[in-house]
Design brief:
Its main location: membrane. InterPro entries: ABC_transp_permease, LivM-like. 73% of the residues lie in helices and 1% in strands. With 356 residues, it is mainly α. Strands 1-2 form a two-stranded antiparallel sheet.
């Protein structure tokens, strides 16, 4: 009996599918493995650096935390914020006050700064949910300019230190690490641990139903509302999460730099965070890391370049701004989706060549 064409089609084997590694078959397990590897990488990097390198590593960590929160807000939920430096200031001042007046343990101080700033972010988010486009950008811009200046307000000057700010005395490293253990390395460890925890939580948030709702709101608010998403609540939650990240970053800023001062939280800080998010790729947590590394190390590189070239002082001061502009133009021109899109393109190209 001959076999019909239909039976041949029916009995044709299904195309083989590529089986994922065991640690990628579960999102939570995969993120846990990446988090552990990240902690190990940060530890090995910190012990290989000198004190100044550890200081820069700590700065990269808290900058990445703030940028990751901003990329969730702007890249995932589609809300523009030019005022994240204000949330960083709230976290820094909260840390300074609690360490100097209450002598709380550092871990509890970090949690308190995160929670308090997140609560403020939720209040701002309620107002932001009623604003769109340039109106939201303008409101957050006013927040960035106005909130840090409250430290010099007559009624708060004694509490917040006025224009000079507050000096922060962070707890020393544990004695179990040795009396000569570098304080900069201890700060790098604290910042690295906080960074890994934040990225782990945000990575799971992105894959959660809330992350899906944020993407729906970003793409089309009306369509999201018709599909059952509470648009305003989702936008408020996005601000809440993002502000909490900025508050934790501000707490680490105060600990690492031993200072909480209005001059440290100018509009330039908010724009720097936004630049890091755009350079790395809005909506990408890995991009937040790339962008933060770049905006943290670029001023040092540019200063070294200006010194080696023996440039005049009036030119020397503008070298970082010029390099910022050049790097931003190059990245946006070559990879409109940010550095992370370039990394993905390079990965796809490499895999395609390896299959040949």
């Amino acid at each position: 009996m001959t076999e019909t064409k239909e039976s041949k089609v029916h009995r044709a084997p299904a195309p083989a599918t590529r089986e994922l590694p065991w640690w990628r078959q579960s999102t939570l397990l995969g993120h846990t493995v990446v988090a552990v590897l990240g902690l190990l990488a940060l530890y090995l990097l910190s012990i290989s650096l000198d004190p100044f390198g550890d200081l820069q590593l700590a700065q990269i960590c808290y900058t990445t935390i703030a940028t990751a929160g901003l990329t969730v807000l702007s890249g995932l939920s589609g809300q523009i914020s030019l005022g994240h430096g204000a949330f960083v200031a709230v976290g820094a001042y909260t840390t300074a006050l609690l360490l100097e007046h209450q002598q709380w343990p550092l871990a509890l101080v970090l949690v308190a700064a995160t929670v308090l700033t997140a609560a403020l972010g939720a209040l701002v988010g309620v107002a932001a949910a009623r604003l769109r486009g340039p109106y939201l950008a303008g409101a957050t811009l006013a927040l960035a300019v106005g909130l840090p200046s409250l430290a010099d307000y007559h009624g708060l000057r004694d509490l917040l230190g006025g224009a000079n700010g507050l000096i922060v005395t962070p707890p020393p490293p544990p004695l179990s690490l040795g009396e000569a253990f570098p304080l900069e390395r201890w700060h790098a460890w604290i910042g690295g641990l906080c960074l890994v925890v934040v990225l782990f939580l945000l990575a799971n948030l992105v894959r959660s139903p809330l992350g899906r709702n944020m993407r729906l709101v970003r793409e089309d608010e009306d369509a999201a509302a018709l599909s059952g998403v509470h648009v305003a609540r989702t936008q408020v939650l996005a601000f809440w999460v993002s502000a909490g990240c900025a508050g934790l970053a501000g707490a680490l800023f105060a600990v690492v730099n031993n200072l909480a001062s209005p001059g440290a939280f100018t509009l330039a800080l908010s724009l720097s965070l936004l630049t890091a998010a755009v350079l790395g790729g809005l909506g990408s947590l890995a991009g937040a890391v790339y962008g933060s590394v770049l905006v943290t190390l670029l001023p040092t590189w540019s200063n070294n370049l200006a010194q080696s070239a023996q440039l005049p002082e009036e030119i020397y001061a503008n070298v970082p701004l010029v390099l910022y502009g050049i790097v931003l133009i190059l990245v946006i021109t070559l990879f409109p989706g940010g550095i992370q899109s370039g990394v993905r393109w390079a990965g796809r190209t490499l895999r395609a060549r390896l299959r040949r």
